[in-house]
Amino acid sequence: MLILRCPNCGIDADETELAPGGEAHLRRVGPEASDDAFEGYLFHRENPRGVHFERWRHAAGCGKWFHAARCTQTLEVFGTYSAQVTDPPQDIRDAITARRPGWRWRDIE
């Protein structure tokens, strides 16, 4: 069972109390974007086998959105953090790198 700590209210919630929101840290395109860029934003998502950043809502709790970094293979959770950030916090990136040497995601090292 997947258990995530809501960074907003501090409660450890299991997956039955949470609502998934898809991939986190999407780069949105503006109205001047090409059709291909808009299609990429709407439909093309990363679906890695391994470390993944996701959006979650504490539906049966405080109701707020947050982000989680976890492994899709093992359900190992590296941490959760506020949804109001554009990139994962450094402590989350360090936790992933410590457990997965050589790991890289997009422009984050």
UniProtKB/TrEMBL annotation:
Cross-referenced InterPro entries: SoxD, SoxD_sf
Q: Which GO terms describe its biological process?
A: tetrahydrofolate metabolic process
**A GO molecular-function term, please?**
sarcosine oxidase activity
Q: Which Gene3D superfamilies match?
A: Folate-binding superfamily
Q: Name one Pfam family in it.
A: SoxD
The protein's name in its UniProt record: Sarcosine oxidase subunit delta
